[in-house]
Automatic annotation (TrEMBL):
<dbReference type="InterPro" id="IPR015422">
    <property type="entry name" value="PyrdxlP-dep_Trfase_small"/>
</dbReference>
<dbReference type="InterPro" id="IPR015424">
    <property type="entry name" value="PyrdxlP-dep_Trfase"/>
</dbReference>
<keyword id="KW-0808">Transferase</keyword>
<dbReference type="GO" id="GO:0000271">
    <property type="term" value="P:polysaccharide biosynthetic process"/>
</dbReference>
<feature type="modified residue" description="N6-(pyridoxal phosphate)lysine">
    <location>
        <position position="186"/>
    </location>
</feature>
<feature type="active site" description="Proton acceptor">
    <location>
        <position position="186"/>
    </location>
</feature>
<comment type="similarity">
    <text>Belongs to the DegT/DnrJ/EryC1 family.</text>
</comment>
<dbReference type="GO" id="GO:0030170">
    <property type="term" value="F:pyridoxal phosphate binding"/>
</dbReference>
<dbReference type="InterPro" id="IPR000653">
    <property type="entry name" value="DegT/StrS_aminotransferase"/>
</dbReference>
<dbReference type="InterPro" id="IPR015421">
    <property type="entry name" value="PyrdxlP-dep_Trfase_major"/>
</dbReference>
<dbReference type="GO" id="GO:0008483">
    <property type="term" value="F:transaminase activity"/>
</dbReference>
<dbReference type="Pfam" id="PF01041">
    <property type="entry name" value="DegT_DnrJ_EryC1"/>
</dbReference>
<protein>
    <submittedName>
        <fullName>DegT/DnrJ/EryC1/StrS family aminotransferase</fullName>
    </submittedName>
</protein>
<keyword id="KW-0663">Pyridoxal phosphate</keyword>
<keyword id="KW-0032">Aminotransferase</keyword>
Length: 365
């Protein structure tokens, strides 16, 4: 049986009538940029997250970029972030002329190792950017203790963590700003690119709304340098439909993950759910020393899988100018050779889940 890593067409079919009604409503309105659809979705998202403001933007990467603009990141400032993650956090720091400062991650959670942050702080440090990888929160309260001593900012990258909780609160909610992504394959995904910034700060919210629209809060009046990063109304309408199903979909991912872990724990390292955290399994990622051979086995079985991520950021050519070398972050470097993500999307059938289970077990027999 062939099992894809995701199946967005299947998800669409399950909610087709609601999606079609929402998109038709936008098309018939003739209002495609900002407007009521976007405002309604922003309000719904903020309510769901338990936050005061949700400012939608053009992508998750833009959500990070605009967040750094909002805190006043300047050239030669430094931002501390994990090296084992997708490229966006480091990318936006560098694009603004600042310096990404990498630290290693925890092997069990894949998230930033808070014990390594303090030694990375310098007089130029402006912010710490924890990435809540695969659907589980980093230890933000521990980071807040470091930040509180120095007046730094916390910008949370929650692209993979929409719907998860940390100590009873939705993620992100503990930092100054939190960025989320609505890339189609995310747990809450639109039909294209999209993102949002969450904050409880009125001042940051005002700044972000201006920056996303050419530095303007009033037509043809530009108070600051801005950009064009707005969520399309049609995407907001789609996301408003999907938001209603997010908890149900996340629960389905947890159920599948629970079965996987019960079936796989004798063969591979399965994901660890830490105390006071609620995992929403954007990815179900195992650790396996024979990862590459297991991938070849899956190919023969027709089971899709993916490596998130095959090379830590400090070893990427784009960041060679920073002077990092192999061996600097041993946990991240080891993980890049062992991690493997398996299908965990909520529309998986029982037969497909059985096929994934059989795929793993048959390799280790």
């Amino acid at each position: 049986m062939k099992v894809p890593l995701v199946n967005l067409a299947r998800q669409y079919q399950n909610i087709k009538s609601e999606i079609d009604e929402a998109t038709s409503r936008v098309l018939e309105s003739g209002r495609f940029i900002l407007g009521k659809e976007v405002e309604d979705f922003e309000n719904s998202l903020a309510d769901y997250m338990g936050m005061k403001h949700a400012i939608s933007v053009g992508s998750g990467t833009d959500a990070l970029l605009l967040s750094l603009r909002a805190i006043g990141l300047e050239p030669d400032d430094e931002v501390i972030l994990p090296t084992f993650t997708f490229v966006s956090p480091a990318e936006v720091v560098a694009l603004l002329g600042a310096k990404p400062v990498f630290v290693d991650v925890e092997r069990d959670s894949f998230n930033i190792d808070v014990s390594k942050i303090e030694s990375a702080v310098t007089a130029r440090t402006k912010a710490i950017m924890p990435v809540h990888l695969y659907g589980q929160s980093a230890d933000v309260d521990e980071i807040k203790e470091i930040v509180g001593k120095r007046g730094l900012h916390i910008v949370e990258d929650s692209a993979q963590c929409v719907g998860a909780t940390y100590k009873g609160s939705k993620v992100p909610s503990r930092g100054h700003l939190g960025a989320v992504s609505f890339f189609p394959t995310k747990n809450l995904g639109c039909f294209g690119d999209g993102g949002a910034v969450l904050t409880n700060s009125d001042a940051f919210a005002k700044e972000l709304r201006a920056i996303r629209s050419h530095g303007s809060m009033r037509k043809y009046e530009h108070t600051k340098l801005g950009t064009n990063s707005r969520l399309d109304a049609i995407q907001a309408a789609i996301l408003a439909v999907k938001l209603k199903y997010l908890d149900e979909w996340n629960n389905r991912r947890r159920e599948t993950a629970k079965r996987y872990s019960a079936e796989f724990s004798s063969f591979v390292e399965v994901p660890v759910i830490l105390e006071e955290r609620d995992h929403i399994f954007h990815q179900y990622t195992i650790k396996c020393e024979e990862r590459d051979k297991l991938i070849e086995h899956f190919k023969k079985k027709g089971i899709a899988c993916a490596v998130h991520y095959p090379r830590p950021l400090h070893l990427q050519p784009a960041y060679s100018y920073l002077g990092y070398k192999e061996g600097d972050f041993p946990v991240s470097e080891a993980l890049s050779k062992e991690v493997l993500s398996l299908p965990v999307y909520p529309e998986l059938t029982e037969a497909e889940i059985d096929a994934v289970v059989d795929g793993v077990k048959s390799y280790f027999k």
